Amino acid sequence: MVERSRKLSGGKRKVSRRAFLKAGGVAGLASAAGALHVNIARAQSRTLKIGFIGAQSGVRANFGETTPWMIERIRTAVKDGVKVGGKSYAVEILVKDNQSDPNRSSVVGSELVLREKCDLVVAFDSDAALAVGELSDARGMPTLSTMVPWTGWKFSRGATPDDLIEKSFPYTFHFFWGAGEVVKNFLAMWNSVKTNKQVGTFYSDTPTGRAFGSAKTGLPSGMSQHGYKEVPGGFYKMATDDFTNQVTAFKNGNAEIVSGLVLPSHWATFWNQAAQAGYKPQVCTVAAAFLFASAITSLGPRGDGMSTEVWWTPKFPYKSSITGQTARELATDWENSTGKQWTQPIGYSHAIWEVALAALSTAADPKDKEAVKHAIANLSVDTVVGPVRFKDTPVKNVALTSMAGGQWRRTKNGRFPFELLIVYNATAPQIPVEAELKLLSQLG
Amino acid sequence: MIWVETIINGVLYGGLYGLLGVGLALIVGVMRVVNLSHGEFIVLSAFIGVSLIGVVPWLHPLALLLPVAAIAFVLGFGLQAVLINRVVTRPDPFAAILLTFGVAVVVRNLMVEVYGADPRHLQAGQLAQASAGIGGLHIGVLPLLILALSVALFTALQLLLTRTRFGRIVRATADHRDVVRLMGVNPGRVYNLVMGLSLALASVAGMLLAIRASFTPYSGVERLLIAFEVVVLGGLGTFWGAMLGGITLGVAELVGLRLDPNAGPLYAHLLFLVGVLLRPSGLFRVRA
Fold first, then answer.
1. Nearest Cα residue in chain A from B142
2. CB of B193 within 8 A of CB of B161?
3. What is the pLDDT of residues A276-318, one digit of tens each?
4. CB contacts < 8 Å between A and B, how many?
């Protein structure tokens, strides 16, 4: 309205204040009427509106890297609309970047929920999942989220260790693995090699890092159960430039294993400072830091042998319910059209659309929020990341997905300098094991 | 041994902190203006370095220190000539502070617009991992180099201000802006040069920070806080004070983290608070 008034006054040079106010009022009425008209038209149309929030820039930009590419493919796949209960609906996808920022997540979240009046909102980022979750439950907006361990998702939304399983939400649903699976995979990988069982740990001071480093439910409790001793490096702030304290502590504590939850840019600083101090651990198994080939490649030769949790690789034996592509075919599609190596979020950035479209197309009426909510709660769909089962799930509002353990190794003559090999699969036996975990001193 | 290592690392880290603050100390000393966009220009210099590396990828980032400093000098000169000189002579110091605050917001959002919000880093190759063994201790070559460069820059700045004609003019302008006019000095032009020099120093800090760790367009705010603490702790307007203030903060932060790994920069901030309460004119205030 302000914009319009400005344009009006710009057009006629000499306008009296009264005339100006009148003109502004008329323009305001006109625009209000316009908005009303559009809303009526929308309610009648057979268009399903899906709002998407992801981190396409900011510290978690790596996780959103595949999003635009994937959305383009999904738009192509649904360009002729989807059929629900014999009626055909067009699909409109609205994409918002939350810049990896909680405040920005709230802003774009309320745009999608309140202004755009979407039929379904999907959140592909931890901040987005938390910010939009509260709003969606308050406003009755069916919402799907992923890309944050479900334990972190529930804790940040008010669950306690006692009601972690039972805590439920009316409209928000989540699919991912939990911090517990990561801990299991990490410990099993360490148990497969001989070390002094001293583990240096440090965590980013974020909801995910806090959940993972929690003394009761996170990595520390798993370690003490298996006889590993922690050399704590604490929770570091995002703006940290110096990790010499962690390096010194781990070196003096004789930690042969380094673990925790660290972002790639921070790990690069830590790992350089470890080299400067002459600290040489045998195993580096760190959550979040080694998910991406780009992060490993930027470490140069010192990236060889880093080990990580694996939630998706082209070797996962699943295929897409939308395009029928196997995991391998999807990854090759990405590599051929971008020239970049596959990344783990490809799987989930595809699966979230599989789950979203399945939810809308199994709903009794996809334009009815209650119907969509019931459809999600009873959903069971086989996606490219594996089965996603909300129906009869052991954890309220959460579908649990599979995870394995992997180690990055240098390739001899491959297309890319490093490849991720699966070294442990007991929490997801259908994913084939390719190699054994090697100590860093055995490599290079 | 672990404490020795912690303190040495703190001193090395503090050298960079000092460098973050010295440009700000210069501006405060000469113009009595706190440049709230100092942090943004530190980060902008790092982005300029990243852009230049994109053009000449075979060059080592340290070789870009001079070109980036030259660009930052021009930016500082322009900023002062076009904007800050308009308000700096007003009796109300808030005008200039608010202006630099506005500049900070604009520069930060321009950087987000142009470069995106992703963390960036300047690759220093082998140098980033090089280690020097001294008496059973392993010290990083890069942090040593950064400290040495800081000390060299501080010395050069001190010599420039105490031993040269330009330095005399700057000091005279700082003391009596109106009197130097009578001697044929244009204070505005002196301010332009001083702001250029301040941002050139900030640019070196920014480049070194980008080599040592990573940065985003939002990193400027935290750096400004450090720079500000360095200046106040060292004593407003003194340069060696800024260096010592930086080292004190660096050591306090790392010793604090050793005692409590979850503390973050808490102990450095606490030290700052105690320092301001006990010695409001600065820990290392010497009569100039």
1. A276
2. no
3. 999 999 999 999 899 988 889 888 889 999 999 999 999 999 9
4. 110
